[in-house]
Amino acid sequence: MTTSQEELLPGTRRALLHRIAVAQAEGRAPSLVAAVVRGGQAVWHGARTSVDGHGPDETVQYRIGSITKTFTAVLVLRLRDEGLLDLGDPLEKHLPGTGAGEATIADLLAHTGGLAAESPAPWWERTPGSLRPVLADVLGEQPLRHPVGRRFHYSNPGYTVLGALVEKLRGAPWEEVLRREVLEPLGLNSTSGHPRAPHAGGWAVHPWADVLLPEPSEDLGRMAPAGQLWSTTGDLARFAVFLAQGDDRVLSAESVREMRTPAAPVEAADVVDGVSYGLGMQIQQRHGRLLVGHSGSLPGFLANLTISVEDDVAAVVLANCTSGPLLSTLGADLVRVVAEAEPRIPEPWRPMTEVAPDVMELTGQWYWGTYAFALRLTADGLVSLEPLSGTGRRSRFRANGDGTWTGLEGYYAGEPLKAVRRPDGTVSYLDLGSFVFTRQPYDEEAYVPGGVDPDGWRGIG
User: Fold this and answer.
1) How much is the pLDDT for 6?
2) Of 119, 269, 390, 438, which residue is 20 to 30 A from 446 by alpha carbon distance?
């Protein structure tokens, strides 16, 4: 992956530099380093530091905290894709005796397992992992705080349990599995469980004075799958590309898309804020954009990875302070700067190479009762059904190879679509999960549930 800065316009580069400079100065961060990704590669790198001389670059490690959880989620999805577990499996099936076995694997990935947010005292982020040598020390005597599956409740112990699950099914330590199955295939050679030179030191900045205090850097032990990793903007830029596109050596595009899909119930405040959670990935709506990724923090460090798949832009931001700049806001702003200044240029339209006549005849206008819809055939082999009003239920459908289709999103996700033909082979109507779509509103020549009044349409007089 290159880090060529010439690929963005000068005005865009200056806007990015200005934004991180303001964040570092106002957030009083000892150092802050950022990268922007577009078109599958890093296209900009910037840094600000309080130390004179050479600033940090894309090779300097920072601790990334809970971005580690996304890496752990990738390992779990790999186990699912290999058939070693199902996301609907209760934890007890694979890792018995935890006291949290009713929670499913999907619950733990989406933070809906009802587990406590933190391990029992003392605070795990600032104390040695040797104080919690086994899962029972992480989960405590009463691991559950909420009914399983009912609400989103962020849980660090939940990802510790997922790490233990990986170790159980792979028969090797979590970090070893991560290195072999994710880091090496993706070329993330500067990501590790422990710091390697060059790396930043972690600092606390006094809230009322411009002075510093070094933060301890603890080995988190069993809690490692929740927040242990160190990485660089260079490596996280590569990871962002993977999370947007997939890589069959690690996870398919379909599986990473599943990670980016909301999986947790949201509360009223979350709806207002436009935030939700997928499988190891945070999801938010900002500036009219759907953003996915993850944030992270540990004493002395802040981290953020933000991706707009639609805009094909991602941002990575790392800082070495316990509190200060709001990196989730900064990451979203860096994405917005590039997306607005240099919007994505779409690929040229190209016609389909071939199309089956029996599919072609289904295109055009259809009616569900009196609601008008359009069915379109697209170059990717899908069909789409959209309301002509521009609002309402819509979906794309994937061909099943037998003349039927399956809905891919929204209300019709998973629902079957088929064309029902008359004895002479002509299409009478479309059946979509028992909904009947006809060529005319309540077409008297087609099957309409409940029938059509024999006197037909009329006025009032």
Assistant:
1) 52
2) 390
